[in-house]
Amino acid sequence: MEFPKNFLWGGAVAANQLEGAWLEDGKQPNVTDVLVGIGSKEPGIKWNGEKYEMCLDPDKKYLSHEAIDFYHRHKEDLELMAGMGFNCFRTSIAWGRIFPNGDETEPNEKGLAFYDELFDEMKELGMEPCITMSHYETPLHLLTEYGGWSNPKLIEFWKNYAKTVFTRYKGKVKYWLTFNEVNAMLRNPFVAGGILTINNPKDPSDPIGSITQEDIWQGYYNILVANAWTVKLCHEIDPDAKVGNMMTASGACTYPETCKPSDVFGAYDTQRWAVYFMCDPMVFGEIPSYVKALWKKNPSWTPKMNDDELKLIHDYTIDFISYSYYRSAVYASDATMTNNTGGIKGKDNPYLKECSPKPWSWPVDPEGLRLLINMFEDRYHLPQFIVENGIGLDENLDENGKIDDPFRVRYLEQHLKQVALAIEDGCNVMGYLWWGPIDVVSAGTGEMKKRYGFVYVDRFNDGHGTLERKIKNSYYRYKEIIESNGEAL
Ligand code: BGP
What are phi and psi of 388, to 5 degrees? Predict the structure, then answer.
């Protein structure tokens, strides 16, 4: 198994899922702070007759508010990561630590100082920071006050944020990712798109159900403009840094159930609306024809665009692509295509041998990853960075206080073998980051029970726990693989 010499090995997390300290040192709520899991359709916001305001449900446990307290324990945690030999660590900047409401002109120094310290620690431990600028972390105020990304004002607020972090962390951060899994915005406009319809919402008691297609498509366009601005600003401020997008790529690995031509087309169309509608314009600088065709059919969905911005989208395309891959999907014309944080879900695939345990039941398809890497190589000719791959399991310490997790080891090895094969196929893969190298709060369900870590954290769904960290057996296996640059596979 051969991996390139400078291959980036490591793991990925997100501020909102591990930092906690949700209102500390000036931070204000972001969009995930009012949800128990991003799959929830009931955000803790309420219409007061004029606008939405935060109104958390006292009966719900918002575990992310304290999460695993990385905000105060990062030193110890980063040392654990470095202990596996990581040369790269991905986390996000919580936008609301830097601009608490999002629309301030001056940044919050305490927030900036926190990430200074964090990035310095990573560098000292030999880990290159890979930083997501917004991992489902749009400040809530930007949604309730402005309607979020459907409002072009967000582009200006974002530019201010981008300029601030590129200037401050120049020379420290080499890999920037713009918006986490931004292509999930069609199916989850509130969180992945940072969008809220605030002008005459259809049913104010159902804020998510009231988001209009008009707002979604204007948000899509504004995000593309912001993405292009990010590339431009980053290259001007720190020419050594690189900007990637971040996609949930599992949907691009949608298989047709049969060779019936309508199944094959349906699978292809699913791939387009799951991934390519967003990734293609960020790489090629052009809005795809099928998106324009949709707008033609529904004229009111056509966003307000201008030539200068379209030129910007055209001229400032990303340096590399990055994505998460958890599983594949099967399309059939009689199947309902649903989705969650793992990607698109259609029919069960009878050829796959394993699934993660219930209630999650995510099918395990390592070969799908090789296919995906090859498809992206052929389509984009850009370096690709796998910035999330992993498996969530329900785990408890055994009687000796240990965790043996052979399923995780198998998942890791099988996927890495396919990455190696894709590299042998000629694909340009920059690195591989495991999702959740330490147990964090689940994005989809907001629970602790779904654990991805090589390091266990003593915290539970009801919120109790000592927050003590414990190394699982898989930790040692990943360490061996990294230390041998993949040869141990
Ligand atoms: C991705 C997100 C992550 C992450 C992962 C696993 O969609 O980018 O934030 O958590 O999925 O999902 P979950 O936590 O729902 O199992």
Answer: -160, 125
pLDDT greater than 80 at residue 1: no
356 CB within 6 A, ligand 1: no
Tell me, what's the pLDDT at 2?
Answer: 83
Q: How far is the CA of 443 from the centre of ligand 1 (A)?
A: 5
Residue 341: CB atoms within 10 Å: 25
Three-point CA angle 450, 452, 456, nearest 5°: 90
Q: Which tokens go with 301?
A: 């969905």
DSSP state of 443: T
Q: Catalytic residue among 257, 388, 395, 413, which?
A: 388
Compute the mean pLDDT over every residue in the chain, rounded to the nearest whole number: 97
388 is catalytic: yes
For the cut 90, the answer to whether the pLDDT of residue 452 exceeds it is yes
**Overall average pLDDT of the 325-351 stretch:** 94
Q: Which atom of ligand 1 is nearest to the CA of 441?
A: 14
| List 121, 137, 181, 395, catalytic entry | 181
Specify whether the backbone of 67 is left (phi greater than 0), alpha (psi in -120 to 50) or beta.
Answer: left
Instruction: Tell me which residue has its CA closest to atom 9 in ligand 1.
Output: 443
Q: Give CA separation, 277 vs 49, 186, 315, 392, in Å.
A: 36, 10, 18, 28
**Residues 78-90 pLDDT 10s:** 999 999 999 999 9
- For the purposes of burial, counting CB atoms within 10 Å of the CB of 296, is it exposed (0-12), middle (13-18) or buried (19 or more)? exposed
Give the mean pLDDT of 387-408. 97
